[in-house]
Specification:
Layout lengths: L1 H14 L1 E2 L6 E2 L3 H10 L3 E4 L12 E6 L5 E6 L3 H19 L4 E8 L3 E8 L2 E8 L2 E3 L1
Antiparallel strand pairs: 1-2, 3-4, 4-5, 5-9, 6-7, 7-8, 8-9
Length: 136
């Protein structure tokens, strides 16, 4: 479980590269995500076509690690599409993680990002949206 949490924390930290105290974040590119995950021993597969993402610059990459760890990274057409997906995926994440054994949650927002972190029911989940990208 500790390794699982470490990978999630690492992925979130990688995506949330703070550029200043003003909480303006720089989104990762698909190639940066792939490189970071592979350098840390995760297998990365491209599901862009399978997910029906065919716009310029759009991508859907999944990184697979030990103990069933899966990180999903999406590059959307624009920030509005990413925000809409964030809201829908947030409900999925809450359904998986939250339950009667809720241990905590946090929501953080900034100029160009939003992040939710949930822990409970034996699960831990984090999701971030930075501009036109999502990490789930």
């Amino acid at each position: 479980m500790k390794k699982h949490l470490w990978y999630l924390c690492f992925a979130v930290a990688t995506m949330l590269v703070f550029s200043s105290c003003a909480a303006q974040l720089k989104p990762l590119t698909a190639s940066e995500f792939q490189t970071e995950m592979q350098e840390n021993g995760l297998e990365v597969l491209d599901f862009t076509v399978d997910m029906g993402m065919d716009g310029p610059g759009e991508a859907a990459l999944f990184a697979f690690g030990q103990n069933g760890l899966v990180l999903e990274f999406y590059v959307m057409a624009d920030a509005a599409a990413a925000e809409a997906s964030f809201e829908g995926m947030k409900q999925d994440l809450e359904a998986i993680v939250m339950g009667e054994d809720t241990q905590g949650s946090s929501v953080e927002t900034g100029k160009n990002y939003q992040k939710i972190e949930l822990q409970g029911n034996g699960h831990y989940g984090v999701m971030c949206q930075v501009e036109h990208t999502l990490l789930y």
